[in-house]
Specification:
With 80 residues, this protein is α+β, with helices and mostly antiparallel strands. It is globular.
Length: 80
């Protein structure tokens, strides 16, 4: 599955912060956005939340933006 996420770095704690009107999940992460630390914290949080291995969570787009498209799971994204 893929989800849209808005990341809020440098928060007091890493947690779900709700859902936006368009269905995008808001997630606060304690890590700063330096050198991919916030992205890694996001992936670890989502892996724990959905009960999948860390390797099954990948950021598909938005690596340097607040809004990201994240793939969760090991199934292929596109099936022919």
């Amino acid at each position: 599955m893929t989800i849209n996420v808005k990341v809020i770095p440098r928060s007091a704690r890493t947690e779900m912060a709700g859902e936006m009107a368009d269905g995008t999940l808001k997630i606060r992460v304690a890590a700063p956005p330096d050198k991919g630390q916030a992205n890694e914290a996001l992936c670890v949080f989502l892996a724990r939340h959905y009960g999948v291995p860390r390797a099954a969570v990948n950021i598909l787009s938005g690596h340097t933006a607040a809004r990201k498209l994240v793939k969760i799971g090991t199934e292929p994204l596109f099936v022919r």
